[in-house]
């Protein structure tokens, strides 16, 4: 199954969040390999750093979490997947015209949905309502 997970979903697999148990359950129910774009790598690292700033984790814990991400890349669970900027942004602009006037989607929401579509994903993992609605409207099967 080709799936795509937004950064919030991926972060839930590593950080202790209210959505963590549901994210793990979703992955265990339908084992997948998840592509991770350079944008998602930046967002994930930034999520870890924001957790340090909010004093939810220490720098040492951030480094350990990042090592877990690197291990998951090495194991093939996460696959570094570049997407051309032109293709990604063209698709995101199209999505913006379709969904932002009614859903209020944010640019990063659109970039994740666009990446899923460019990569021809069938499933889209996200906890973000606006992103989920846009993805579902594009024919992606939204989980959880």
Q: State the share of residues found in helices, binned by percent.
A: 55-70%
Indicate the CATH class: Alpha Beta
Poorly predicted residue ranges: none
Task: Categorize the overall geometry.
Answer: globular
Strand order of the largest sheet: 1-4-5
Percentage of β-strand residues: 5-15%
Structural class: mainly alpha
Mean pLDDT: 96
Quickly count the helices. 7
Alpha carbon gyration radius:
15 Å
In the CATH hierarchy, the third-tier topology is known as Rossmann fold
SSE order, one letter for each helix or strand: EHHEHHEHHEHE
Quaternary structure state of the chains depicted: single chain
Total strand count, please? 5
CATH architecture: 3-Layer(aba) Sandwich
Main β-sheet description: 3 strands, parallel
Description:
With 144 residues, the protein is mostly helical. The protein has a single domain (3-143), classed as Rossmann fold. It contains seven helices and five strands, in the order E-H-H-E-H-H-E-H-H-E-H-E. The protein has helices at 7-14, 20-29, 38-53, 59-75, 85-103, 107-118, 129-137, and strands at residues 3-5, 34-36, 78-80, 123-125, 141-143. The strands form two sheets. The protein has a three-stranded parallel sheet with strand order 1-4-5. Strands 2-3 form a two-stranded parallel ribbon. Helix 1 (7-14) packs across helix 2 (20-29), helix 1 packs across helix 3 and helix 5 (85-103) packs across helix 6 (107-118).
């Amino acid at each position: 199954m080709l799936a795509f997970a937004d950064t919030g979903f991926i972060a839930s697999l590593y950080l202790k969040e209210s959505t963590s148990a549901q994210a793990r359950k979703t992955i265990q129910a339908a084992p997948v390999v998840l592509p991770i774009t350079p944008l998602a790598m930046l967002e994930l690292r930034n999520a870890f750093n924001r957790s340090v700033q909010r004093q939810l984790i220490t720098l040492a814990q951030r480094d350990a979490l990042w090592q877990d991400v690197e291990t998951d890349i090495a194991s093939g669970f996460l696959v570094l997947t570049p997407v051309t900027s032109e293709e990604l942004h063209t698709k995101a602009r199209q999505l913006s015209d379709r969904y932002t006037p009614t859903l209020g989607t944010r640019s990063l929401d659109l970039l994740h949905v666009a990446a899923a579509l460019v990569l021809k994903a069938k499933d889209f993992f996200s906890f973000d309502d606006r992103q989920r609605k846009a993805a579902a409207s594009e024919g992606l099967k939204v989980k959880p």
